[in-house]
Each structure stands twice: as structure tokens, then as C-alpha cells.
Amino acid sequence: MMKPNKYYAICDCDSCYCSCERVFRPDLNGKPVVVLSNNDGCVVARSKEAKQLGIPMGIPYYQLAERFPGKEIGVFSSNYELYGDITQRVMEIIRDACPEFYRYSIDEAFCVLDNLPYDALKTWGEELCLKTRQWVDMPISIGIAPTKTLAKCADRFAKDYPAFKHCCVIDTEERRIKALKLFPLKEVWGIGRRYLERLESYGIRTAYDFAMKPRAWVRKELHVTGERTWMELNGIDCIPTEQLATKKSICTSRSFPGMIEDLLGLRTQVSNYAARCAEKLRRQHTVCANIMVFIDTNRFRDDLPQYSNSAMEVLLTPVNSTQEVVDAALRALKRIFIQGYKYKRAGVIVSAISDEGKVQTNFLDFNPEKHEKLKRLTASIDKINKLNGAETVVLGSQQYTAKHGKGKAGSFRDAIKHDFRSHNFTTRWEDIIRVK
């Protein structure tokens, strides 16, 4: 492994969703905790104790009591507003601790560090872990290495082995080889299911087995993507940092608590999914040109007629305002909706994503005055929602009304089943903690 010019650190929140719930429930520390999917369907996040208990990922909620009788398990509905705010606080601490920062997901971030000796790198990581625990009460683990893929490997060791004190550094050839020999191939960043099956058929079981294959063989079998992973495992930095911060596509989709038969009900759901996609675009300062909507009936109900379809709206000028993204999504929905089916799931996918500062406008549909007006309006809505809680201000199409017109209109978060959802202690005034 060549002497690197710099090191990469991957900072990853431990059992993110469960740890966020524990911030305000310290009584659950050391106890198994799980978080359920939307509509309280199945387990999508588990604490370390829940994994040790044997709770599998994806188990339906109703089976927990049957398979683990008498076990005290903390169960929570997913609360992404809380998780987003807590992890944002963690990311701000990480951002302040390093010269170059790239947020990779809700609970992960890459840091670019100078070429420092082992002791300095280890001290930096351990101090950062301690700071996030003291300031936000969130546990994180850090992997440091000359490449991003090796850093992901180091992060796994930091999580699994307490002796590392939440920070593992791979900085020498000896440490790299030892780590790769212990690291399962299925956990290597960049090795998907399709590649995994092919490599295992050749008897490749560990990251070391893969890294020892000839480069030409890897290029032939796995093409450019696989070759890049091979290079990273061999200490050759080749994944551009710019690719880490921007997603190529964004999808928001959910199953409904019940089934929806009318277009109005589907419009509400699709409007909210499209609004979420627009918010994510603005958060990473990008715009999109393609907006696709898909709808599905319940494939598990053989007694019902089945139908699924999708449609895409291609925009001449890329956008990220909620109004424009929602309008395009609803146009796509109208083209594929057919009356007479019971719909169970829908989703919105935005793609053809580019930097909002490099938008190529089209004179046929671009109205500068309208664009500036929407930009100011969107900025104001985002500010209000940030100060007062998500969905304080929404579009009319995002509001739902109870079935048959009974009950008042409510927000999208109230349309999802969430019997075990915690309060939004840090983002909503009505949920603020009261100390007695």
C-alpha cells in the first residue's frame, strides 16, 4: 500500500434510529429496542441488544410477542422528523471537527483528513466519538483509512470490537491485510448481491480473497465498478469525493394503512411523496428533470384484481420547488390511474439530478418572474417548517380528509399508522419536554 496523501474517515451513528429513541429514553440503554416501518408493519431497525436477542430484520410486528414471549423489548414507530434533527446535530459536530466534510446518508458522513501519524488519527477519532456522546448522547463509530472502501471496513471493526474504543485506523500494509482477511465479502461496500453470487461461485469468501485476484480478471468479470472496489481494497484511492454528497435519484414510497380506491386519496399520498422528494433535492442543493410516479395494488390479495403502472414527466427546465414537483407528479398519476382497483402502494422517484447552480433553462417554458416567485415562496415555507416543525405549512393537495368526509383535514404524518411513535421533542413546541 502506497503512502497516502490523505486519509478518509467514515463517521457512522451506531444503530441510528434506536439510538435516537434512547436519547430521550435513557431507561432503555442496555435493553433491546426496535423501530418499525411506516404503518407499524415490520422491524426496520434494531439495537445491538435486539440483534443479540435474535430479532431478525423485517420480522412483522405482530410476531414479536409470539416469538419472544416475556421479553422486554422497546418498540417504536418510525419518527423520521426526530431522527433527522438528532442526526443533523451530530453532523454539525462532525463538520466542525474536520477540514473537509461530505454527508453520505442520514447517519453517515465522510471526512477528509491530512496525512497524520497513527496516534493523531486515533486520538482525533476517539475525541470526536466522545464529543458526540457528551453533546447529543448519540454513539458513533469511526473508520479511518487511505481509501473510502477501506474506511468502511475499518468502521465495521470499530462497531464490532469494543477494544477499538469506537475508532479503528488502517494505516499500514500489515493492518490492511489483517483487516481484509477478517472481513466477509458480503459486507464490502460496492459488492452487491449480483456480484456476490458470482464471486462466491469462484470460492471468494473474504475481502482479501477478492483483493488478491488479478486486476484484469476483476475487470473482465465485474467491469469498471468492480475494478474500482478492487483498487480501493488494495489501497488505491479512486472514488471521487464529489459523488458521495449527491444522490443520482431520490425515491419516496410507502404502503398505505388500508387500501385506496379513489383518485383523490391517491393524489394526497402522491403529493406528499413528491413534496418529500422536493425537500430532499433542496437539502442537497440540486434540481431534477425527471419525475416518475408508480402505483400498485395489493399483490398478496389473490382475491382482488391486480394492476400496477408507472408514468414519467420529463421537464424542460429542472426544478426543486415543491409546487412544481408535485404538479408534475400529479400529471403523471392522472395518466395511469384506473378506477375500480384497490391500491395499496404508491411512490415518486426523481432523477436526472443536477446542481441547482448549473441549471440549463429552456426558453420555451422558463418564466424568470415565476421562477423567482416560487424560489422565494419555497424558501419561506422551508424556514417556517424548520422553525415550527415539519408540515406546518403544506400544499392543499397534501391535506387528507377522513373517510366519507367525517373528521377534519390533517397532515400526512397523521395519515400513517404509528401507534408507538415518540414525541418530536426537538422540533415541535407541543412536544417539548416538561420538567417537574
Automatic annotation (TrEMBL):
Domain UmuC: 8-192
A UniProt-annotated Pfam family: DUF4113
Record keywords, A-Z: DNA damage, DNA repair, SOS mutagenesis, SOS response
Family stated for the protein in its record: Belongs to the DNA polymerase type-Y family.
Name of the protein: Y-family DNA polymerase
Provenance organism: Hallella faecis
